Amino acid sequence: METQRLLSGFCSNPTIPPVRNTKKPFFVASPPTSSASFYQPRKWVSYRTCHFVPQRVGSKQRLKCKNGVENVEDDAISHGKDLKNGVRRKKLAVFVSGGGSNFRSIHEASLQGSVHGDIVVLVTNKRGCGGAEYARDKGIPVVLFPKTKEEPDGLSPSDLVSVLRRFEVDFILLAGYLKLIPVELIRAYPRSIVNIHPSLLPAFGGKGYYGMKVHKAVIASGARYTGPTIHFVDEHYDTGRILAQSVVPVLANDTAEELAARVLREEHGLYVKVTEALCEERIIWREDSVPLIQSKENPSEFR
Length: 303
Ligand code: GRF
Prior knowledge:
Blueprint: H1 2-8, E1 56-57, E2 60-61, E3 64-66, E4 69-71, E5 83-84, E6 87-88, E7 90-96, H2 101-112, E8 117-124, H3 130-137, E9 142-144, H4 157-166, E10 171-174, H5 183-188, E11 193-197, H6 212-221, E12 225-226, E13 229-232, E14 242-245, E15 248-249, H7 256-279, E16 283-285, E17 291-293
Parallel strand pairs: 7-8, 7-10, 8-9, 10-11
Antiparallel strand pairs: 1-2, 3-4, 5-6, 11-13, 12-15, 13-14, 16-17
Bound molecules: 5-O-phosphono-beta-D-ribofuranosylamine.
Residues 96, 98-103, 175-176, 196-198, 228, 264, 267 line the site of 5-O-phosphono-beta-D-ribofuranosylamine (GRF).
């Protein structure tokens, strides 16, 4: 709650906007409505209780941290409201625990313009991971989650929801984030959280299937095809509705490392395509709650 209090200092009305009811039979996904009363701080104030060495972000001096939220100058955050074909530019949170190569490819696609959205915050459970370093280097605020004995600066689930609300986050992209997503976050962001998994779910998914373990299991099974899956996130590991998949062949003499590298290359392209579709509001929910991607070129086609 300390973070809530601190951030509330910037906020004329700290009320969290109500969660939408999304139980409609068939609709285009849209992000949670953000309250117009949210105040965008002109300037982030510096707090200093944790152990980051101040670095430079562009020309700006950064960066202080309190209770899991590293603060940056406000103008490092995009407030773009620009419309593309009548669709508002989206705000994205990315969660990582490791190197963050998917995060980087989405960030690059955002800068290059194919993704109609901006990564406004990076959430990690590993403050020193490659993804967090990349975010700091690019001036993207870093948030620590969860709070643990080893990471007492991390946020609680309810504080994380508050922080994401204050960043006006529309979609959450899990990209190699190894912790289970708390139910508070799933309820606060219905149909708005996706994850990438390096196998063709529902095969080789679930608790314990992460990193190289997935690729070793694929090779040991004799499967001839594997590939990334992007799915919506529910309370369990890797069980949410599948949104997109891409097939990668398993070669006879593949090592797990070779296979992982081939799958990862495919992940980068797939995650960018899915993020483009999310940001352009091209996700359509079939009546049986299967999400489909509407083709950009031919809007009557769905995959
Ligand atoms: C990817 O293989 C992804 O499928 C899995 O974690 C890995 C993350 O890689 N969930 P990176 O951090 O994006 O490089």
